[in-house]
Amino acid sequence: MDxxxxxxxxxxxxxxxxxxxxxxxxxxxVGAFAAAGAAALGAPVALQAxxxxxxxxxxxxxxRPVVRRHARPAIETGEQPFGVEALEGATAVVLEPxxxxxxxxxxxxxxxxxxxxxxxxxxxxxERVQVIKVRGATALVWQDDISTPGELPEAxx
Length: 157
Prior knowledge:
Low-confidence stretches: 147-157
Mean pLDDT: 83
Order of helices and strands: HHHHHEEEEE
């Protein structure tokens, strides 16, 4: 009966982790599964609780920092960015007028929805723009002819 309790607790924590994506609750789920193993081997309830606490604490102390370190953006780690991170700073051509609400650009042959990084600016078809940030499937763009730091938007300083 004790093993069933720990398994149910582990599953509940794992499912909760799916909704939080913090990589915190799953560590306690691992502890619950370890306690379930101890219960299946006939360990007393007190030992099961100790195993749950120790395995959970070790998971949080050892595994989570490693996962967080590998989850940092490539820019922070000095690695070559890839995927969406690689698009930030890229030059694009406006295919459909871009303003604060809508637009379409072409980045390295790919079509992207776009919005102006500065809500007061708009860009006409054929203009060159620079991708400042990507949010979901939308690129936030700025004028491409940035030459002085004073013209650079706050996010890129």
